[in-house]
C-alpha cells in the first residue's frame, strides 16, 4: 500500500483541480457543507495525488470508479462513451467523472427539460435529445415529474415505481420520438462504438440491447447496464443471459447496475 506523503496544500489543490475540470469544480463548490472546509467530509479532504481518478464519484453506486479501474486494466486511459438515458450531466451520472478527467462522448436523453444543464456543464459532449427504443417511431413517455430519473417509456416500470412509492404519481404523458441504439451509433458516433456504453432507460434496457447489432468485436469494450428499476424488479439474470450470448462477461454487479466486459 502506498504510504501517505506530505504534499503542500497548494500543490495538491492544483493537482485535484486539474483532474476535475472547470464545469464540475463549480458543482463541487455547491456540494461542500458550510463549516466543513474546502473539501469532502468533516476533514476537508481534497484527495491525494496517488488517487488517479480523484476522490469523488458522481455515479449512484460508484460505478464510474469501477469502470475507470476496469479501463485502466484494459490499457484505455481516456475512454470514450455513449450514455443512453444520461438524465443529468452530474447527478447520479456514470460518465461525469469521465468528462472531468478529459474524456468526451455522446449523451442521449429523451427529456427536453434536462438538456440545458448539459449545455452548461458538459459543453464538449455531443448531446442528443431523443428517446431510444427497440424500433424507430414515437412512444409515450411517462413523466413522474419534469426532471425525474424515473421518467420512462416503459409504462409498467413507471407504474411499479409509483406503486412502490405512493408519494409520487405519473403527472404527464408526452409523445417522444425514438430511434434504435444502432441508429444512435450510426448518426451520432460516426458508426463506431465508443469504449463504454452506459444504458439506464428504466425497464427498456434489455429490449433495446436485444434489438441492436451489438456484439463482441463490433461493440463497446465495456457495458454498464441498469438491471434494477421501477418497483425494484431485478433483471440481472436476463441481462447477463443476453450479453453473454453477445460475447460479454459480467465483471461486476453493483446495487443497481451490471458491468460487462468484452471477452478476448
Features:
264 residues; alpha/beta; Rossmann fold; 2 domains; 7-stranded mixed β-sheet; 3-stranded mixed β-sheet; 9 helices; 12 strands; 30% helix; disordered N terminus
Please explain how this structure is put together.
This protein is α/β, with parallel strands linked by helices. 30% of the residues lie in helices and 20% in strands. It contains 9 helices and 12 strands. Strand 7 (196-199), helix 8 and strand 8 form a beta-alpha-beta unit. The longest helix has 12 residues, at 9-20.
Global shape: globular
Rg (C-alpha, Å): 19 Å
Largest sheet: 7 strands, mixed
Secondary structure class reads alpha/beta
Oligomer: single chain
Succession of helices and strands: HHHEHEHEEEHEHEHEEEHEE
Proportion in helices: 25-40%
Total helices: the number is 9
Could you tell me how far the N terminus lies from the C terminus, measured between alpha carbons in angstroms?
Answer: 30 Å
Kindly report the spatial arrangement of strands forming the biggest sheet. 3-2-1-7-8-12-11
What is the CATH architecture term of the largest domain?
3-Layer(aba) Sandwich
β-strand amount: 15-25%
Low confidence ranges: 1-13, 27-37
Which homologous superfamily in CATH is the superfamily of the largest domain? Vaccinia Virus protein VP39
Number of discrete domains:
2
CATH secondary-structure class of the largest domain = Alpha Beta
Q: Output the CATH topology of the largest domain.
A: Rossmann fold
Mean pLDDT, nearest integer?
Answer: 85
* Strand count: 12
Amino acid at each position: 500500500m502506498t504510504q501517505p506523503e506530505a504534499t503542500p496544500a497548494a500543490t495538491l489543490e492544483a493537482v485535484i483541480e486539474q483532474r476535475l475540470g472547470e464545469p464540475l469544480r463549480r458543482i463541487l463548490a455547491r456540494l461542500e457543507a458550510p463549516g466543513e472546509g474546502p473539501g469532502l467530509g468533516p476533514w476537508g479532504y481534497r484527495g491525494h495525488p496517488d488517487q488517479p481518478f480523484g476522490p469523488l464519484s458522481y455515479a449512484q453506486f460508484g460505478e464510474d470508479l469501477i469502470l475507470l479501474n476496469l479501463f485502466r486494466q484494459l490499457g484505455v486511459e481516456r475512454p470514450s462513451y455513449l450514455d443512453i438515458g444520461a438524465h443529468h450531466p452530474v447527478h447520479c451520472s456514470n460518465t461525469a467523472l469521465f468528462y472531468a478527467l478529459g474524456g468526451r462522448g455522446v449523451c442521449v436523453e429523451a427529456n427536453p427539460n434536462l438538456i440545458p444543464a448539459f449545455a452548461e456543464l458538459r459543453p464538449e459532449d455531443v448531446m442528443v435529445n431523443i428517446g431510444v427504443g427497440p424500433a424507430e417511431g414515437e412512444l409515450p413517455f411517462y413523466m413522474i415529474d419534469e426532471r425525474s430519473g424515473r421518467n420512462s417509456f416503459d409504462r409498467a416500470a413507471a407504474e411499479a415505481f409509483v406503486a412502490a412509492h405512493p408519494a409520487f404519481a405519473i403527472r404527464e404523458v408526452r409523445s417522444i420520438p425514438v430511434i434504435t441504439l444502432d441508429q444512435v451509433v450510426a448518426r451520432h458516433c460516426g458508426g463506431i462504438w465508443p469504449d463504454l456504453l452506459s444504458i439506464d432507460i428504466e425497464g427498456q434496457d434489455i429490449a433495446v440491447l436485444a434489438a441492436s447489432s451489438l456484439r463482441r468485436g463490433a461493440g463497446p469494450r465495456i457495458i454498464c447496464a441498469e438491471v434494477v428499476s421501477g418497483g425494484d424488479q431485478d433483471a440481472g439474470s436476463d441481462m447477463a443471459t443476453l450479453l453473454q450470448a453477445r460475447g460479454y462477461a459480467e465483471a461486476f454487479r453493483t446495487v443497481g447496475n451490471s458491468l460487462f466486459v468484452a471477452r478476448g
